[in-house]
Design goal:
- This protein has about 350 residues and is α/β, with parallel strands linked by helices.
- The protein is about 40% helix and about 15% strand.
- It has a seven-stranded parallel β-sheet with strand order 3-2-1-4-5-6-11, sandwiched between helices.
- Helix 1 crosses helix 8 and helix 7 packs parallel to helix 9.
- The radius of gyration is 19 Å and the shape is globular.
């Protein structure tokens, strides 16, 4: 990426902020970030003269009008975070998680400088819905019409549009299918209130780490029987760059560790990393989540991109716990913005 110019939608968010920092360290000449800060904090973005920050939605016609054919790479990471927020407000999910993709692709479909466009997909939209024995989900797995959330629907339709714009307009889109990303830079409560406690309690790993650091019980829906493929954020960033540099336009790649970890085992690892001895809080299974056990196959990305996750879960958790401790005051301020709404919900 040396001397390259990049556009990153959602570049102030968790993955986006880490990607921008890597682009800068790799010698990018210019990085333009577009982010409406709906689920991100401005302080998470690198302070560097090569970064141009535009606060606004990538679906805003005025924002799009300021984007010209001047980028080598586009990374489309903006999203409506996440499943529970999308179920609370499907229209907001549609506007921020799908219309963003369609309008961006319409804007850039005729650009000629572009080497690659990387679209962030979601493994949950493809994985088999099962609590029985799971198999590693391959990129060519059949796609069900049964989805657990508007978020999953939006992410898979975004893949449909990626393929369409590649076939129809030769837009060089590569789809990067995420698994459960965790690591430094994921801020509890980041952004604006989105109607549910999931505004504060985002993904499972930062929630567990925060509660564990404060001696609280870790909530285990269904006793923690569900499983996920946890991949450290530095590895995801490496995978995104591999997609940009070596991915085949029109194709899709899992960015996965290939390791299935139960939520119960995750809780045990987090408590071990923090020294928390409080017993877990066993809760009923979430009635909306039918994708109980899942993990991704890393074989195609390894063979075609030379990409493999390098940071194991225990080491990644150790680093994330250390980052959370270091940034606790800023994270707490982010969470406390929503204190009134959380109290009103009894959360």
């Amino acid at each position: 990426m040396a001397a390259a110019s990049a556009l990153v939608s959602g570049g102030a968010g968790f993955v986006g902020g880490n990607l921008v920092r890597r682009l800068l360290s790799d010698g990018a000449a210019r990085v333009r970030v577009v982010d409406n800060l709906l689920s991100a904090e401005r302080w998470n973005l690198a302070d560097d003269p090569r970064v141009e920050f535009v606060e606004g939605s990538i679906a805003d016609p005025q924002v799009l009008g300021g984007i010209g054919d001047e980028y080598d790479y586009v990374f489309h990471l903006s999203t409506y975070h996440g499943n529970q927020s999308s179920m609370h407000d499907p229209l907001a999910d549609h506007e921020n998680n799908l219309i963003t993709t369609l309008r961006l692709f319409e804007r850039i479909k005729g650009f000629r400088r572009l080497r690659k466009v990387v679209y962030s997909g979601a493994g949950c939209a493809v994985a088999e819905k099962t609590y029985d024995e799971a198999e590693a989900t391959r990129e060519d797995a059949p796609i069900s019409l049964t989805m657990d959330s508007p978020y999953s629907i939006s992410k898979i339709v975004g893949e449909f549009y990626s393929v369409y714009y590649h076939n129809r307009h030769q837009l060089p889109v590569v789809r990067a299918r995420f698994q459960n990303v965790y690591g430094p830079g994921e801020i509890l409560g980041a952004g604006r209130w989105r109607g549910t406690p999931a505004t504060v309690w985002r993904n499972v790993t930062p929630t567990f780490i925060w509660k564990s650091l404060h001696g609280e019980s870790l909530p285990l829906e269904g006793g923690g029987a569900a499983s996920r493929d946890f991949i450290y954020v530095d590895d995801i960033v490496s995978g995104l760059l591999a997609c940009a540099e070596r991915g085949a336009p029109g194709d899709v790649y899992n960015l996965a560790s290939g390791v299935e970890t139960s939520i119960l085992d995750l809780a045990r690892l987090v408590d071990a990393a923090t020294g928390n001895t409080t017993p877990p809080d066993i809760r009923p299974r979430r009635d909306w989540d039918h994708s109980g056990r899942r993990y991704g196959s890393p074989e195609k990305a390894r063979a075609e991109l030379g990409f493999a996750a390098e940071v194991g879960l225990e080491e990644g958790l150790r680093r994330t716990v250390a980052w959370t401790r270091e940034h606790e005051p800023a994270i707490r301020r982010s969470m406390e913005k929503h204190a009134g709404q959380m109290r009103a919900l009894g959360a």
